[in-house]
Automatic annotation (TrEMBL):
The keyword Transmembrane helix applies. It is a multi-pass membrane protein. It comes from Companilactobacillus tucceti DSM 20183. InterPro entries: PG_synth_SpoVB, Poly_Biosynth_Transport, Polysacc_synth. It holds the Pfam family Polysacc_synt. This is Export protein. GO terms for cellular component: plasma membrane. The chain crosses the membrane at residues 12-33, 53-71, 92-119, 131-155, 167-184, 196-213, 245-265, 299-322, 334-358, 370-391, 403-422, 428-447, 468-490, 496-518. Its main location: membrane. CDD domains: MATE_SpoVB_like. Keywords: Cell membrane, Membrane, Transmembrane, Transmembrane helix. It comes from the Bacteria. It is found in: Cell membrane.
Length: 535
């Protein structure tokens, strides 16, 4: 078994992430149909609120440990001390399982208080929160195993486990929803409850797969690569205990939670503003919140998965270079490749989604001009979030944890300050724009700091980035133009018509962008990172 390269790792996580996100979006079509039009707005709003709460507890349950484990395992393995990696796995699986039990208990027995704090007192979230608490029992151990596998540079296995998790989760959701709503003519509340329980099913199967893969990973290490304490003394290793691991993990935790925390802030502040200041009805609040807080968010998570893929490979690769005390020019080269590759992947993806935004919304949620406009703004939010998250992880791996946390706190502060006036002035667009501005401003400062240390940006990189931007803009114009022309002949207000337009425009966009990046040499970035080993 050969370790994954930086390119293979990014591609695997990108593919698995995109597949998982697309699956998480596609299931909405039958789910919405079976829920029925009368309960659709309420069901989407409820499901969105519950999952925002779940995501917060999920990230707290893993506490950023997977990223920290990945970082430490890669550092130890780069020096040949695989025995230390095994100790880390066993020790922190036990610790984090106990954390999961405590959090699951709090979610189950304190569901009423969770609803008051995080859902503006919406008591409908109590029961589904209890169902989700069961998944928290296994999620921490799953996160530890994923970080361990990633640290060994077998990131493809970790990525595939996410695919298994999503397939199992969605399969159970659809089965349960069809049974309750169609066969039994039951309540949408029961369907939402079972849909949340599906997370436990998916996590269990993913964990079983990773346990099997762990044995294969261990057997893949050549005997000559294994070092003993006599060859590489413990004094050369970073001493890791639970306290130091938490110290390393908490910054990753805070970065990972920012989007979830901001969404929780949105669902409480938006509801409060619309009910107490604008005096809107509950139905209006549910419909508007569902648009930007659940429906648009589901679609843009495809973009976010791309950033996660790049981020997951940055941490062990950069950590290994730093642990070996690599030359500054080697770190500089890696960071330049990461910057170029990130823009090369995320920018055209965001532009492409904007170009076919109207048809995307029609396919999944029905024709709605306001929803389409919110999706377009959400794409900008997703792009700047992706950039900000990657830069924050680079700062942490580079040892600038304090600065990273300051930037994170300032991003929160900007969001909070802008939330009220923008929501009053822009309505449902307000929370999305506030988040976008926060990520954009602090992403700028984070990149400026990294560039100051490593001098990443030079004339050559600037030209390469400008070419990618130009190619992406041309692709957007072509896709948007094709979309406009096709709507003259195909009824885009139907799901079938919108799907046909999406497929044609997507293929055209890929061809145009692929041709442009090939002609101007931007495609060479893939060759640049193809041979880059994680360690």
């Amino acid at each position: 078994m050969k370790k994954d390269s930086l390119l293979k790792s990014s591609l695997w996580i990108s593919i698995s992430g995109i597949f998982s996100r697309i699956l998480a979006v596609v299931y909405i079509i039958p789910w919405n149909i079976w829920i029925g039009p009368l309960a659709l707005g309420a069901a989407n709003a409820l499901y969105g609120k519950v999952y925002n709460i779940y995501n917060l507890f999920l990230i707290i349950a893993t506490a950023g440990i997977p990223s920290a484990i990945s970082k430490e395992v890669a550092a130890h393995n780069a020096l040949g001390r695989y025995d230390q990696s095994e100790k880390l796995l066993k020790k922190y699986t036990l610790y984090m399982t106990l954390v999961g039990i405590v959090l699951a208990g709090f979610m189950f027995f304190g569901a009423k208080y969770v609803a008051i704090i995080f859902a503006a007192g919406d008591m409908r979230v109590i029961t589904p929160t209890k169902y989700l608490s069961i998944a928290i029992l296994i999620i921490p151990a799953l996160g530890i195993m994923r970080g361990y596998i990633q640290g060994y540079a077998f990131i493809s296995f970790s990525a595939f486990s996410q695919v298994i998790e999503q397939i199992a989760r969605v399969a159970y959701m659809l089965y349960a929803t069809y049974t309750i709503m169609v066969l039994q003519k039951g309540s949408y509340m029961s369907a939402v409850n079972q849909s949340t329980f599906a997370s436990f099913i998916g996590a269990t199967l993913a964990y079983a797969f990773l346990i099997w893969m762990r044995h294969r990973v261990r057997k893949s290490i050549p005997a000559e690569d294994v070092k003993t304490a006599a060859e590489v003394p413990d004094s050369q290793l970073t001493k890791v205990n639970f306290g130091s691991m938490l110290k390393s993990a908490i910054p990753f935790l805070l970065v990972d939670t920012i989007m979830t925390v901001l969404q929780l802030f949105d669902q409480t502040s938006f509801v409060w503003i619309y009910q107490n200041v604008i005096h809107a009805s509950q139905r209006t609040v549910d419909n508007l919140y569902a648009m930007f807080g659940f429906q648009a968010n589901k679609l843009i998570m495809v973009l976010v998965s791309l950033a996660i893929s790049v981020s997951a490979t940055i941490i062990p690769a950069l950590s290994a270079l730093i642990s070996r005390k690599a030359k500054q020019k080697d770190i500089q080269k890696l960071l330049r490749n990461i910057v170029q590759f990130t823009i090369f992947i995320i920018l055209p993806a965001a532009f492409g989604m904007i170009g076919i935004g109207s048809q995307l919304w029609t396919v999944f949620y029905g024709t709605d001009t306001l929803g389409t406009q919110i999706l377009i703004v959400s794409c900008a939010e997703a792009f700047f979030y992706c950039i900000f998250m990657i830069l924050e992880n680079v700062l942490q791996v580079d040892g600038r944890t304090k600065t990273s946390m300051i930037y994170l706190a300032l991003a929160y502060l900007i969001k909070v300050i802008l939330q009220y006036p923008l929501t009053i002035y822009m309505g449902a667009f307000g929370p999305v724009v506030a988040t976008t501005v926060a990520f954009m401003i602090m992403g700028h400062f984070a990149f400026r700091l990294i560039n100051k240390q490593y001098s990443i940006v030079d004339k050559t990189l600037a030209i390469k980035l400008l070419k990618i931007v130009f190619d992406s803009v041309v692709m957007l114009i072509v896709v948007y133009g094709a979309d406009f022309l096709l709507t003259q002949f195909i009824n885009s207000n139907t799901k079938i018509g919108a799907t046909i337009i999406i497929v044609i425009c997507a293929i055209l966009g890929i061809i145009v962008y692929g041709f442009l990046v090939y002609k101007d040499g931007s495609l060479k970035v893939i060759k640049e990172i193809r041979g880059t080993e994680i360690y």
